[in-house]
Amino acid sequence: MKKITVAILFVLVFTMAFAVLPTSACGTECGCPGVGTPGYWKNHPEAWPITEIDLDLDENIDFTQEEALYWMNQPVKNDKSITMFKAVIAARLNWEMDCHDKDAQYWYWEGVWWLNKFPVGSGVKANTEAWQYSHGELIYWWLDEFNNGRLTCLPRD
Fold it and tell me: Is the pTM of this model over 0.90?
Protein backbone atom coordinates (compact mmCIF):
# COMPACT_ATOMS: atom_id res chain seq x y z
CA MET A 1 0.00 0.00 0.00
CA LYS A 2 2.84 2.36 0.86
CA LYS A 3 4.46 1.89 -2.57
CA ILE A 4 1.19 2.58 -4.36
CA THR A 5 0.61 5.76 -2.34
CA VAL A 6 4.12 7.01 -3.07
CA ALA A 7 3.76 6.16 -6.76
CA ILE A 8 0.47 8.04 -6.99
CA LEU A 9 1.96 11.02 -5.16
CA PHE A 10 4.96 11.04 -7.51
CA VAL A 11 2.73 10.96 -10.61
CA LEU A 12 0.56 13.80 -9.28
CA VAL A 13 3.50 16.01 -8.37
CA PHE A 14 5.21 15.27 -11.69
CA THR A 15 2.05 16.06 -13.67
CA MET A 16 1.29 19.26 -11.76
CA ALA A 17 4.88 20.47 -12.07
CA PHE A 18 4.96 20.19 -15.83
CA ALA A 19 1.61 21.91 -16.08
CA VAL A 20 3.02 25.06 -14.46
CA LEU A 21 6.54 25.16 -15.93
CA PRO A 22 7.40 28.36 -17.78
CA THR A 23 7.56 28.12 -21.54
CA SER A 24 11.01 29.68 -21.80
CA ALA A 25 14.21 29.29 -19.88
CA CYS A 26 15.53 32.32 -18.02
CA GLY A 27 19.03 32.13 -19.47
CA THR A 28 20.68 35.54 -19.37
CA GLU A 29 17.47 37.46 -18.62
CA CYS A 30 17.77 36.55 -14.93
CA GLY A 31 21.45 37.46 -14.66
CA CYS A 32 22.36 33.80 -14.61
CA PRO A 33 25.35 32.48 -16.59
CA GLY A 34 23.58 29.10 -16.77
CA VAL A 35 23.19 26.32 -14.25
CA GLY A 36 25.95 23.82 -13.63
CA THR A 37 25.67 20.13 -12.87
CA PRO A 38 27.56 18.50 -10.01
CA GLY A 39 30.12 17.42 -12.61
CA TYR A 40 30.60 21.00 -13.75
CA TRP A 41 31.08 22.33 -10.22
CA LYS A 42 33.48 19.60 -9.12
CA ASN A 43 35.64 20.26 -12.19
CA HIS A 44 35.52 24.08 -11.93
CA PRO A 45 36.25 25.00 -8.31
CA GLU A 46 37.57 28.37 -9.48
CA ALA A 47 34.02 29.24 -10.59
CA TRP A 48 32.49 28.69 -7.15
CA PRO A 49 30.87 31.92 -5.92
CA ILE A 50 31.27 30.87 -2.27
CA THR A 51 33.88 28.79 -0.48
CA GLU A 52 31.84 27.64 2.50
CA ILE A 53 28.42 26.03 2.36
CA ASP A 54 26.14 25.87 5.36
CA LEU A 55 23.74 22.91 5.20
CA ASP A 56 22.34 23.08 8.68
CA LEU A 57 18.82 23.30 9.95
CA ASP A 58 19.44 22.54 13.62
CA GLU A 59 23.22 22.22 13.96
CA ASN A 60 26.25 23.77 12.35
CA ILE A 61 26.86 21.57 9.35
CA ASP A 62 29.29 23.59 7.29
CA PHE A 63 31.43 22.37 4.44
CA THR A 64 34.47 24.18 3.15
CA GLN A 65 35.02 24.08 -0.57
CA GLU A 66 37.73 21.48 -0.02
CA GLU A 67 35.41 19.25 2.05
CA ALA A 68 32.57 19.62 -0.45
CA LEU A 69 34.90 18.77 -3.33
CA TYR A 70 36.06 15.69 -1.45
CA TRP A 71 32.48 14.36 -1.32
CA MET A 72 31.68 15.49 -4.86
CA ASN A 73 34.62 13.42 -6.13
CA GLN A 74 33.54 10.28 -4.27
CA PRO A 75 31.87 7.49 -6.24
CA VAL A 76 28.33 6.87 -5.11
CA LYS A 77 29.00 3.16 -4.34
CA ASN A 78 25.45 2.41 -3.20
CA ASP A 79 25.26 5.50 -0.95
CA LYS A 80 22.42 7.77 -1.99
CA SER A 81 23.47 10.35 0.61
CA ILE A 82 26.44 11.12 -1.67
CA THR A 83 24.10 11.38 -4.65
CA MET A 84 21.92 13.85 -2.74
CA PHE A 85 24.92 15.82 -1.45
CA LYS A 86 26.24 16.37 -4.98
CA ALA A 87 22.85 17.59 -6.19
CA VAL A 88 22.31 19.90 -3.20
CA ILE A 89 25.78 21.47 -3.49
CA ALA A 90 25.30 22.07 -7.22
CA ALA A 91 21.88 23.62 -6.60
CA ARG A 92 23.32 25.89 -3.91
CA LEU A 93 26.16 27.04 -6.16
CA ASN A 94 23.69 27.67 -8.98
CA TRP A 95 21.51 29.65 -6.57
CA GLU A 96 24.51 31.75 -5.52
CA MET A 97 25.07 32.58 -9.22
CA ASP A 98 21.50 34.00 -9.44
CA CYS A 99 20.27 30.90 -11.26
CA HIS A 100 17.10 30.09 -9.39
CA ASP A 101 13.39 30.32 -9.00
CA LYS A 102 10.97 29.57 -6.17
CA ASP A 103 10.70 25.88 -7.10
CA ALA A 104 14.48 25.46 -7.11
CA GLN A 105 14.67 27.09 -3.70
CA TYR A 106 11.98 24.78 -2.36
CA TRP A 107 13.73 21.60 -3.58
CA TYR A 108 17.11 22.87 -2.37
CA TRP A 109 15.75 23.22 1.18
CA GLU A 110 14.08 19.82 0.92
CA GLY A 111 17.48 18.39 -0.01
CA VAL A 112 19.11 20.17 2.94
CA TRP A 113 16.40 18.75 5.23
CA TRP A 114 17.04 15.25 3.85
CA LEU A 115 20.81 15.58 4.35
CA ASN A 116 20.28 16.75 7.91
CA LYS A 117 18.32 13.55 8.49
CA PHE A 118 20.67 11.31 6.46
CA PRO A 119 24.16 12.92 6.46
CA VAL A 120 26.54 12.52 3.55
CA GLY A 121 28.45 9.27 3.86
CA SER A 122 25.77 7.57 5.96
CA GLY A 123 25.38 4.64 3.54
CA VAL A 124 21.75 5.14 2.41
CA LYS A 125 20.86 2.38 -0.06
CA ALA A 126 18.54 2.98 -3.02
CA ASN A 127 16.02 0.37 -1.84
CA THR A 128 15.62 1.78 1.67
CA GLU A 129 12.90 3.72 3.38
CA ALA A 130 15.23 6.72 3.58
CA TRP A 131 15.57 7.01 -0.20
CA GLN A 132 12.23 5.73 -1.45
CA TYR A 133 9.74 6.87 1.19
CA SER A 134 11.48 9.84 2.81
CA HIS A 135 11.24 11.45 -0.60
CA GLY A 136 14.98 11.30 -1.24
CA GLU A 137 14.50 10.04 -4.76
CA LEU A 138 11.88 12.68 -5.58
CA ILE A 139 13.96 15.51 -4.10
CA TYR A 140 17.00 14.34 -6.05
CA TRP A 141 14.98 14.13 -9.27
CA TRP A 142 13.88 17.77 -8.98
CA LEU A 143 17.36 18.98 -8.08
CA ASP A 144 18.77 17.05 -11.04
CA GLU A 145 16.23 18.64 -13.38
CA PHE A 146 17.19 22.10 -12.10
CA ASN A 147 20.95 21.48 -12.17
CA ASN A 148 20.75 20.19 -15.74
CA GLY A 149 18.86 23.26 -16.99
CA ARG A 150 15.57 21.48 -17.64
CA LEU A 151 13.44 23.78 -15.47
CA THR A 152 13.80 27.53 -15.72
CA CYS A 153 17.48 28.36 -16.24
CA LEU A 154 19.53 27.21 -19.20
CA PRO A 155 22.54 24.94 -18.66
CA ARG A 156 26.07 26.34 -18.86
CA ASP A 157 27.87 25.95 -22.19
Answer: no
